[in-house]
Design brief:
mainly alpha; globular; transmembrane helix; transmembrane
Length: about 160
């Protein structure tokens, strides 16, 4: 993320999307890799793989949807928020502080309504909320985070 690359793209937005597109592809690859590793470990542990969840009343489709779609949206939200924090402050320590604050919201009593878009990709949220509700919350959070990114790019500091 050097200034040379931003100047070469002649637009901060073009630079952002060239970088962000690659990261989005890596997130998708990471989720498939994680699912594959989970299945591989289950096979090594000689677990019977019948795709029937005994803990959750949700269907297999809802669980897969929660893992891939909401997992993807959750990771994109984290990435956008960290990008915003690092763009504003240019201090890596603030990114670590942001992650620490997010970790507090992972505690059960810190996010009782599930409205803070942190940790919503967890399967525990499927007990009380529909996957579609979680998707809507994450889509809105990503939309507003992206609006903040666009605003930061249009501010006077971002003009190259």
């Amino acid at each position: 993320m050097s200034y040379y690359k931003m100047i070469r793209f002649r637009s901060v937005t073009k630079w952002f999307w060239s970088w962000f597109y690659v990261v989005l592809i890596k997130i998708i690859g990471f989720l498939f890799y994680l699912a594959g590793i989970s299945l591989w470990i289950a096979i090594l542990m000689q677990t019977k793989i019948n795709f029937h969840a005994t803990i959750y009343r949700n269907t297999l489709i809802e669980i897969i949807y929660q893992f891939f779609i909401n997992g993807f949206l959750q990771l994109v939200f984290y990435l956008l928020i960290l990008f915003i924090i690092l763009w504003i402050s240019k201090e890596p320590t603030y990114g670590l502080i942001t992650i620490s604050i997010f970790m507090l919201f992972l505690l059960p009593e810190m996010n009782p309504g599930g409205f803070v878009p942190v940790g919503l990709n967890g399967f525990g949220y499927l007990q009380n909320y529909s996957p579609l509700r979680i998707t809507i919350i994450l889509l809105l959070a990503n939309f507003f985070a992206y609006l903040i990114v666009v605003y930061l790019f249009k501010s006077k500091k971002a003009n190259l």
